[in-house]
Specification:
The N and C termini lie far apart (51 Å). The protein is built from five helices and no strands. It has helices at residues 2-8, 14-39, 48-71, 77-91, 96-102. The longest helix is centred in the N-terminal third of the chain and has 26 residues, at 14-39. By secondary structure, the protein is mainly alpha-helical.
Length: 103
């Protein structure tokens, strides 16, 4: 909430915001998570039903996504990317390919 409020009130300029974000995501959060995991006391006898249900569900969703990604055809493949590139060239007068054609 404090971060959102600081951004909303423009308490930091753009470069400070980028530096703070890089620090938080690349250093502070991983250190915090590692410290939390290191201090966590595991129960002597874990509830294996809970563990298998959690990781079984996670694996099922992963497998479903992997199958869907291989079975469903890609959105036009390379032809789609070429078409998008041509659209970008057409609509952006400063695009490198378009300026090369104009010279």
């Amino acid at each position: 909430m404090a971060g959102w409020l600081a951004a909303r009130l423009r308490a930091f300029d753009e470069s400070a915001t980028r530096g703070l974000s890089l620090f938080a995501f690349n250093f502070a959060i991983p250190v915090f998570l590692l410290r939390t995991v290191a201090r966590t006391e595991l129960p002597p006898h874990p509830d294996w039903g809970f563990v298998f249900a959690y990781f079984g569900g996670a694996f099922a969703i992963f497998a479903l996504g992997a199958v869907a990604a291989t079975v469903r055809p890609q959105r036009g493949g390379a032809r789609h990317l070429r078409h998008r590139r041509l659209l970008l060239q057409h609509h952006d007068p400063g695009h490198p390919d378009r300026t090369a054609r104009l010279r």
